[in-house]
Known about the structure:
Order of helices and strands: EEEEEHH
Radius of gyration: 13 Å
Bound molecules: zinc ion
Number of domains: 1
Strand content: 25-35%
Number of helices: 2
Structural class: alpha+beta
Number of strands: 5
Amino acid sequence: xxxxxxxxxxxxxxxxxxxxxxxxxxxxxxxxxxxxxxxxxxxxxxxxxxxxxxxxxxxxxxxxxxxxxxxxxxxxxxxxxxxx
Length: 84
Ligand SMILES: [Zn+2]
């Protein structure tokens, strides 16, 4: 999946959103990331929380394949546990 383009920073969300990366709720008024595009013919438009965006930037190897709902939260947990 190509994430190098299509990211848009949302400085203050106007509504609550569910982060596609970790399933956590993004509260209204918080910073979030919006990405939209086309993948294998399907249009997608998802919100990500700041933590997931930072994680993706730091660990690009994780995300060469398609990301499924909650994957980033799981990866963040895995790496977090491994480094303890
Ligand atoms: Zn998240």
